[in-house]
Amino acid sequence: MSIGLAFLSVRLPDRPGAYGGDMDVLSDAVATMRTGRPHSSRRDKHAPWGMRFEASDGAGFHVVLRGSAWLIPAKGEPVALAPGDVAFLAHGRGHALASGPDVEPDVVRLGPDGRWPEPPSPEGQSAPDTVMLCGAYLLDRSRAHPLLTGLPEVVHLPARVGAHRSLRAAVELLGAELEGSRPGADTVVTSLLDTLLIYILRAWWQDERHGSGHPTGWAAALADPAVAAALRAIHGDPAHLWTVEELGARGGLSRAAFARRFAALVGEPPLAYLTWWRMTTAGRLLRTDDLPLRQVARRTGYTSEFAFAKAFKREYGVAPGQYRRRAS
Question: How far apart are CA 86 and CA 134, in angstroms?
Answer without folding.
Answer: 10
